[in-house]
Amino acid sequence: MTTSDVIRNFITNEILHNPSVIPLGDDESLIESGIIDSLGIMTLLAFVEREFSVEIPGDDLLPENFASISAITALIERQMVR
After folding, report:
1. CA-to-CA separations, 42 to 1, 18, 22, 61, 81, in angstroms, rounded
2. pLDDT tens across 16-47, in order?
């Protein structure tokens, strides 16, 4: 399972609480479409740090880093190479 798939599954099952939701595209705007809000971002942040054994620094806690599955995946990948 790819990083994007893991994130997509978490958002669908834990934030939306609806596994039958139409599949989320990698570039779909999660914030603008109302899929996640500030609480959802914090929930997602805790999951990402635990699941991928990374620590997201405060400087990276920006809405644009959580705007889409692609943006979240890129954020994780940047942290994994540090």
Report:
1. 23, 19, 23, 9, 22
2. 877 676 678 999 999 998 889 989 999 999 99
Average pLDDT, the chain: 91
9 pLDDT above the threshold of 70: yes
Closest CA to 42 of 59, 61, 25: 61
Using alpha carbons, select from 24, 31, 28, 30 the residue that is nearest to residue 9.
Answer: 24
- Residue 52 is encoded by which pair of tokens? 């991928």
The domains located in the chain, with CATH, are: 3-80 (1.10.1200.10)
* Helix/strand number for the chain, H first, E second: 3, 0
> How many CA atoms, within 13 angstroms, populate the side-chain half-sphere of residue 24?
29
Q: CA 39 → CA 3, 43, 78, distances in Å?
A: 21, 6, 23
